[in-house]
Design goal:
Blueprint: E1 2-6, H1 10-21, E2 25-30, E3 42-45, H2 54-60, E4 63-68, H3 75-88, E5 92-95, E6 108-111, H4 114-120, E7 126-130, H5 136-143, E8 149-154, E9 166-170, H6 177-186, E10 191-195, H7 204-211, E11 216-219, E12 229-231, H8 234-245
Parallel strand pairs: 1-2, 1-4, 2-3, 4-5, 5-12, 6-11, 7-8, 7-10, 8-9, 10-11
Helix pairs in contact: 1-8, 2-3, 6-7
Length: 247
Amino acid sequence: MRLLILGGTADGRKLAARLHARGITVIYSVAGLVRMPKLDCQIISGGFTRFGGLPTFIQRNSISAILDVTHPYAATMSAKAVNAAAQCLIPCWRFHRPAWRQSTDDRWQLFNTWESLATALSGYRSVFLSCGQINQQQINDLAANTQQQIVLRTAVQPKYHLPANIRWIKAIGPFTLEGEREVMHKYHIDVVVSKNSGGNSTVAKLFVARELNIPVFMLTRPKLPAVVHQFSTQDDCLIHVLSVFSS
């Protein structure tokens, strides 16, 4: 039996390592945009197009189940996983770390779409954009307000030309409170834009925003198609996979 883990997150790497150590045959898939993980199991990078698509890869490699441990906002890949699993008559499971919860001292505003969020940014002077890669249309939306400074932090350089009012910072988490304070003070940040990624790696910006009374514009998580089982703790996920693969 073989388990295909769709990864690209710290949780994905940890689960792959733990399952491989327990004797499960794991194939770990990663986009490969940031860095290649150091794992002892088989790793494929760059998607499934070169293999003829995900269903073809599943069939040719005798995959018994898919474990989706992609980023909570990787909606396209999660949907492809569910569809491919159904087509190949295998189970699709999902692990997503719990979302961050707003405290009474937080100044969060929740947005379901980028368009509504971008419109609401118009009254701010210096925006800390810490929500991953953005596309050309999103860049154009931000560049329209030439009086506004945008600080964009991503692990990989954007593929598109950035206008003069967007400053790019290359950085990979985890981030510290001291580092986030330095960024917000240096660039006089008056609003933070984030996805509700959950976990500890990038949560420090929310603590500092609360400390400095800075509003946070939070993109809510997308709704994903249902899976056979969804887990929010690694131990629960590990126990389930081991029970299926040892039966």
